[in-house]
Design brief:
298 residues; alpha+beta; Immunoglobulin-like; Glucose Permease (Domain IIA); ten-stranded antiparallel β-sheet; four-stranded antiparallel β-sheet; 16% helix; binds zinc ion
């Protein structure tokens, strides 16, 4: 009898907590991916725009490189209760990298190449716009490759003194041919062998507007529409497109907003100590040798 009463009391507590529980996981800062939970049937709006909520009550959103300092999050729980929260988005300070003495055609592509660049950029945007119902976004990401990080998120870029799009991903230097793993399960939304800037390019849709991007691949092992599991090999590290050394540029995108993958993944596992040749090659690649040249700002 007494046990029953305790069970009933626990049940009430659980129901009350369920009714107006909002859980946010992630650092509120520029470039961050935030995972949330508000219970099944909740409605979420970020700065007035609806955020899709999965049937199990989970959702995600993110802040871009230059996100406003404040965001407002509105929740309507299944029982009708409302919650309004102001989120303070911590400002980050990004460095600048300057690359001089590049051939002019690499800094400002000739007009005959611009049509191709625009077409490929549109193709990438279409892939990023995929919003499948996969709930892979709920599980943590894993590093697609281990190696030396030679480029971080957010850095402003100047080529021959001209401002270009900031670096909106993480560069991981690793020997050509190193297998690249899918950072999470999902559906391949783009698999192209040779785009102008990005070379061999793969995009995986993890559901609810979250995608990962992999560029400069030398071999691609997947096709558009393929379902991949977390950790499945999708291709190999290369230096295709505008890259001056073998490296993987890894990107993370939520609803078209480029996020910082390094904020959405745990510490990188150490390169395989049992294979010193591979580990050494990864470590000794000079950072400047793996800097990809990015498209002009759009
Ligand atoms: Zn990069």
């Amino acid at each position: 009898m007494r046990r029953l009463a305790i069970a009933a009391a626990l049940c009430v507590i659980a129901t009350v907590a369920w009714a107006d529980a909002l859980k946010l996981d992630g650092t509120l800062t520029e470039g961050a991916l935030i995972r949330g939970f508000a219970g099944p049937g909740a409605h979420i709006a970020l700065d007035g725009k609806t955020v899709r909520v999965a049937p199990d009550g989970h959702f995600i959103f993110g802040f871009g490189r230059d996100a406003p300092a404040r965001a407002s999050l509105d929740v309507i729980f299944r029982d009708g209760k409302r919650l309004h929260r102001v989120l303070d988005v911590v400002v980050r300070h990004y460095g600048v990298r300057r690359i001089e003495n590049l051939p002019p055609a690499e800094v400002t592509p000739p007009p005959e190449v611009m049509a191709r660049i625009k077409r490929e950029a549109a193709e990438i945007d279409v892939a990023f716009a995929q919003q499948s119902d996969s709930v892979a976004f709920e599980t943590p990401l894993e590093w697609p490759v281990t190696g030396t990080i030679t480029g971080v998120y957010g850095v402003g870029t100047f080529l021959n003194g001209q401002r270009r799009q900031p670096h909106l991903g993480v560069d991981i230097s690793a020997p050509a041919g190193t297998p690249i793993k899918a950072a999470d399960a999902g559906i391949v939304s783009l698999a192209e062998q040779s785009l102008f800037f990005t070379g061999g390019t793969v995009i995986i849709d993890h559901g609810y507007g979250l995608s990962t991007l992999y560029i400069h691949l030398q071999n691609i092992a997947v096709h558009v529409g393929d379902r991949v599991t977390r950790g499945e090999i999708i291709g190999e590290v290369g230096e295709t497109g505008r890259a001056t050394g073998p490296n993987l540029h890894w990107g993370l995108v939520w609803n078209g907003v480029r996020l910082d993958p390094a904020l959405a993944v745990g510490p990188m596992p150490q390169p395989n100590a049992a294979n010193p040749a591979t580990a050494g090659a990864a470590r000794t690649t000079a950072p400047a040798a793996a800097v990809p040249i990015l498209p002009p700002p759009r």
